[in-house]
């Protein structure tokens, strides 16, 4: 399965995380907004769709910059997670599909419970989004 996710970065270098809702796999963990790419769908189209569904924001594929990826087994299935950086969007993110939203500096994410596949991604974000 291919999963696309976004690190939405604000003007202070903070990244938006959402908390997985009760009843879902990995409930309570903090993840990057996104989801599964559907059959025949372009990854950027899937991510734009997921960001609209989950956060109510509008994004343009031109503002989705490929950042890194994770390759991991999730519940017995292979998952390839493509992480994009996004610094421009329209609208105020709302938790339409999540238990909550949180803006966090990459170094703050180390103390948050996140899916195992996300841990190496966070290390890279610390480099990509320097403190200022
Ligand atoms: N959106 C997102 N998904 C992630 C991250 N890390 C990670 O392992 N995943 C996994 C969780 C899910 O298995 C899958 C994302 O698909 P989804 O969000 O559409 O999955 P879902 O909860 O509807 O379905 P399921 O896993 O309960 O079957 O990728 C992440 O940072 N963001």
Automatic annotation (TrEMBL):
- Enzyme class comes to hydrolase
Q: Which cofactor does it need?
A: Mg(2+)
**Domain Nudix hydrolase residue range list:** 1-126
A single GO BP term for this record reads: DNA repair
UniProt catalytic activity: 8-oxo-GTP + H2O = 8-oxo-GMP + diphosphate + H(+); 8-oxo-dGTP + H2O = 8-oxo-dGMP + diphosphate + H(+)
Q: List the EC numbers from the record.
A: 3.6.1.55
Q: Name one Pfam family in it.
A: NUDIX
Gene Ontology MF, one: 8-oxo-GDP phosphatase activity
Domain of life assignment = Bacteria
Give the record's keywords alphabetically. DNA damage, DNA repair, DNA replication, Hydrolase, Magnesium, Metal-binding, Mutator protein
InterPro entries found in the cross-reference section: MutT-like, Nudix_hydrolase, NUDIX_hydrolase-like_dom_sf, NUDIX_hydrolase_CS, NUDIX_hydrolase_dom
Signal sequence, start to end = none
PANTHER family xref list? 8-OXO-DGTP DIPHOSPHATASE, NUDIX HYDROLASE FAMILY PROTEIN
Family per UniProt? Belongs to the Nudix hydrolase family.
Name of the protein this chain belongs to = 8-oxo-dGTP diphosphatase
Organism annotation: Allosphingosinicella humi
């Amino acid at each position: 399965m291919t999963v696309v996710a976004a690190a939405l970065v604000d003007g202070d270098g903070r990244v938006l995380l959402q908390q997985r809702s009760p009843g879902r796999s990995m409930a309570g963990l903090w993840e990057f907004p996104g989801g599964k790419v559907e059959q025949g769908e372009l990854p950027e189209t899937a991510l734009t769709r997921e960001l609209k569904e989950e956060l109510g924001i509008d994004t343009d594929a031109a503002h989705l910059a490929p950042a890194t990826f994770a390759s991991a087994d999730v519940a017995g299935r292979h998952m390839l997670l493509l992480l994009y950086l996004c610094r421009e969007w329209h609208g105020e993110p709302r938790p339409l599909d999540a238990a909550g939203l949180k803006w966090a500096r990459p170094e703050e994410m180390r103390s948050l419970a996140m899916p195992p596949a996300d841990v190496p991604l966070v290390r890279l974000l610390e480099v990509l989004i320097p403190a200022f």
